[in-house]
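Hi C.,

You asked whether I'd gotten around to modeling the 235-residue construct. I have! Everything is below, sequence then structure, no commentary in between.
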Amino acid sequence: MPTRGAHQGSPPGAARIARTRMASLRHLRLSTTGAALALFLAAAPVSAEAPSGEQIFDHCTQCHGSAGEGNQLVAAPPIAGMAEWYVAKQLRKFRDGIRGKDARDHEGLRMRPMVRFLTDDTWIDNVSSYTASLPKPAPVATLSGGDAAKGAGHYATCAACHGLAGEGNQATNGPALAGQSDWYLYQSIEKFKTGVRGSDPKDTDGAVMRGMVMILTDDQAMKDVVAHITSFPTN
């Protein structure tokens, strides 16, 4: 039986070579995006008016989608409709090396070069305002095996910062969770649990989150709380 993804009669290793080429092409596309963003920002005169959020966001669409709907294939979460304050804070964390520097954080390491050119906070504010104005996409379920009823018990701890219905609370640095993709919620919890996120001394709210997720002692508990969060109504 031929290896899946390889044509019948292909020489040994053809599938592996094909996968390597696809990975290289993906890396090239992402690198090209970063280079294009760098050229765009470098070409803008210092005294010129800051580009609009839409102009800056155009360089984010390859991963996050033209409407900010996200793309699980490249581990890019939906950012449409996400609170402006939260997006701006995360962009600054990536830019300043507070987030995305752990060697295990493959997605974060890819994100950092995309934002390091946003040295002007006005530009970050502009693109954050633009993504906040985009309508939230309807989440699509990708995880299975979670028990929302059991997850409700775990979520009681989360509600203090994220709100009873996952609506978020800027005063407690808790972003909205309602409407976020289940795969990204699960991935984020896992990163906080393992110290991939929230370990930098400057990431004070990340450190708080790290402590909170430790109540989720196993994979099932993580799936349960995600199932509960995804049961919240979205606006």
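If it helps when you're writing up: DSSP finds ten helices and no strands in the chain.

Thanks,
B.
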